[in-house]
Design brief:
- This protein is mainly alpha-helical.
- It folds into two domains: about 45 residues, Arc Repressor Mutant, subunit A; about 170 residues, no CATH class.
- About 75% of the residues lie in helices and about 0% in strands.
- α1 crosses α2, α1 packs across α4 and α10 packs antiparallel against α11.
- The longest helix is centred in the N-terminal third of the chain and has 21 residues.
- It starts with a helix and ends in a 5-residue tail after the last helix.
């Protein structure tokens, strides 16, 4: 590790310690530089500004989350794997609330760290496996958005609730309701149509040479419309 990287690591660790022990407001230029044993200009030279430092701290926290996600062994049941991924998400938020609030508490349009992008790709992969198995009743994009919104919302709600007042049956029920809705809780006929549409799209992803770009774009639009129709019936 170069001297620059060592100093950068020390600053991130110091900011992380302040965040976890005293909260977001304690992470100031003066406090971080004193804790890391550097001059304040060093922070700006390495991170541009405090927002850049906080993004680095958030990414560092996401790395922990991603390591846990990637250590999740996939099984032959993609729906069960999504259940496990949901539980890991909630668990990380409760074990590292300061990091979680920094990462998910104040989302900004168009701003996403590299680690957050990797986490999103992981979620899309898990949902995509359900589609490939013919068990997804909405489009992969819609399913991933629904799972992300629900799991993030319930985690933030639990963080904002006193530990003694937390009802852990709520995230379990919401998990079951959300995953059931994307895997087919509607009528049998509608669910079958949606699952076939999503399954066909997933299969076509493995054979891109079969259609031209224009043909694929048109077919994707039609298949997504069929897949999402189950939600508005």
């Amino acid at each position: 590790m170069s001297e620059r990287d060592e100093v950068r690591r020390r600053i991130i660790d110091s900011a992380t310690h302040l965040l976890q022990s005293q909260g977001r407001d304690a992470v100031t230029t003066r406090a971080v530089s004193a804790a890391a044993g550097v001059q304040p200009p060093t922070i700006y030279r390495l991170f541009t500004d405090m927002r850049g430092l906080l993004d680095a701290v958030a990414s560092d926290g996401f790395d922990t989350y991603l390591a846990r996600k990637h250590n999740q062994a996939l099984t032959d049941d993609p729906v069960e794997d999504l259940h496990t991924g949901w539980d890991l998400h909630v668990q990380f938020g409760l074990e590292h609330p300061a990091h979680y609030l920094l990462m998910c508490g104040q989302p900004l349009p168009g701003r996403r760290t590299e680690a957050a992008e990797l986490a999103s790709q992981r979620l899309h992969m898990l949902v995509g496996r359900i589609a490939a198995a013919g068990r997804l009743a909405v489009s992969v994009e819609t399913g991933a958005h629904m799972v992300h919104a629900a799991s993030t919302g319930v985690t933030l709600s639990l963080i904002g609730t006193a530990p003694e007042d937390r009802d852990f049956d709520v995230p379990r029920r919401l998990r079951e309701a959300t995953i059931s809705s994307i895997t087919g809780a509607a009528s049998t006929d509608t669910r079958d149509c949606a699952q076939r549409a999503v399954g066909l799209k997933a299969v076509l992803d493995e054979a891109p040479e079969l259609l031209t770009g224009g043909e694929r774009a048109l077919l994707d639009e039609l298949l997504d419309r069929l897949a999402d129709a189950v939600l508005i019936r």
